[in-house]
Structure formats: structure tokens, C-alpha cells
Amino acid sequence: MRYALxxxxxxxxxxxxxxxxxxxxxxxxxxxxxxxxxxxxxxxxPAVEGLDAPGFDTSSLSGxxxxxxxxxxxxxxCRDEHPLLETLKAETGVRLFGINHSDxxxxxxxxxAELGNPYDAVGADRDRRxxxxxxxxxxPETFLVDADGVITYKHVGPLTPAAIETELLPALEKAxx
Length: 177
Fold this sequence. Notes:
The chain is an alpha/beta fold. The protein has helices at about 1-25, 75-90, 105-115, 130-135, 160-175; strands at about 40, 45, 55, 65-70, 95-100, 120-125, 140-145, 150-155.
């Protein structure tokens, strides 16, 4: 019995190290979403104050394939991925909506004024409620919504040229049918 009490912490340590060892090579962008192949959550986002782009809601995401990107002005990876979103919009003509996550309107406006605004609509999610409903872990995250308003793809973290080429564009083509 005495030996079991001494061995228990060692056994727990070995188990914990094993979990970390098996997880170390996992791709963090492969976060599964329970919303894949489900309709977008019911929501309404107002426009960012003073921005020349409308807000949007659930019904806005029906009728046409749409890429929805969750971003914030304070997010460094969002700044890095932004030129890729502009290129995606220019090259594919896909409808691109932005969810501005937990941001002051003046900061969101300054971010888009500096980097350009590729978004057809930008909704202000100041209280992060809509982001939570979408299952957002952090910014940036990108979703693909088909013409029926169903989420068909999710990318966690900043988009990269490789992710766009091997994941997003094939998903976009499939959604366009």
C-alpha cells in the first residue's frame, strides 16, 4: 500500500507526458467544428459605426456562397492574412463578409482604412456573442457558407497561401457546385 502511494504521482506524470508527446505534432488548424454541415447560427450584426459597409445577419448568408472571416484590429495574424483576403476576393470574386471581433469602431475603421477593405459587409461583434455562437476559438478564423446558408468549411488561424490553395479554393469550388 505504501509503495502505491509513492508510485501514483509517478504514474500520473508519465501519463501526462504521454498525452503531450502524442499531441506535439498535431496541426492546431485541424480544430473540428460541430457547425460543419449545419445552418449558420441565428444572429444579427450591426454595421461598424462610421464604416461604409453594411452589417449582416443570418438571412444575408443565403442565396450565394460566402466566405466569412472573423478579424480584429488588435490581432497581428489578422494583419498578416489581410493581403491574402484581398487577393482571394480579387481573383475569385467570392462574396466576403467580416465579423469584427471585440473591437472599438474607430480601431476597426483605421485597420480597414490602412490595409484596404475587401469585405462586402462587416458586422460589429463588440460583445463576442456571435463569435461564440459560431464556435470561434480566437481570431482570425474563416468559414465558408454555401448558398443554402450551411457552413461547409472552417479554418482556424491565419490563412496561408497553402491553406487557400489546398483547402479553401477546393471547398469554394465544391460549394459553388
